[in-house]
């Protein structure tokens, strides 16, 4: 029974994302404390995106508007693009020989690496296609329920992500945890409540509006109560390919 309920909620969530895929859309930004914390954590790092940008694992194109708003020219890569997302490259992140080396000024990879069975190989490929001096913005989960099954393989600590990036040839600029236990719990609440509301059509936007303050409060409380990020929901990093790389 629980499996059936979760499947129904997932399908409802997928429909709302298909309709409004942008990470900056009100419903997605304030969907839960977790999504709000990620959005807030990504705002400053995403300012480093410029030039020709690879959106690595673009999915529905959630970060398209943000990349383009920051002046980037976006090319997208995904093995299974969703919701009509028009990708430049249909390829596995761990093996994309059709993508030329030293092509991109920047790369963005948000909430993708946990779905890659060999994350180090994926980072090495991103490193290869970046120009020397190119920048990668990447976020990964730490506290998260299983999702996108069966392709959900890993969770990451700041030190774990640091090691993977370093082993793949990147210089670390910043690594920052975001979210926390309250945002994680609120995300489960939002999944239930907004998933049910999504089945009721027009009530979904109203439910999202009522839920939005809880997203903000949970994220702010986590930032206040867990400054060390011990129970972070995720980690975001800015890394750079060495100029002589």
Explain this structure:
With 245 residues, the chain is an alpha/beta fold. It has a single domain (2-241), classed as Rossmann fold (3-Layer(aba) Sandwich), CATH 3.40.50. It is 41% helix and 20% strand. The protein has eight helices and seven strands; from the N terminus they run αααβαβββαβαβααβ. Strands 3-2-1-4-5-7-6 form a seven-stranded mixed sheet.
List the helices and strands and how they pair.
Elements: H1 2-19, H2 26-29, H3 33-43, E1 52-56, H4 64-69, E2 73-78, E3 89-90, E4 104-110, H5 119-129, E5 130-141, H6 158-167, E6 170-178, H7 181-198, H8 203-225, E7 234-241
Parallel strand pairs: 1-2, 1-4, 2-3, 4-5
Antiparallel strand pairs: 5-7, 6-7
Which fold name is given in CATH as the topology? Answer: Rossmann fold
Number of DSSP strands?
7
Counted up, domains total 1
Radius of gyration: 17 Å
**Could you say what the CATH architecture is?**
3-Layer(aba) Sandwich
Averaging pLDDT over every residue, what do you get? Answer: 92
Distance between the termini: 53 Å
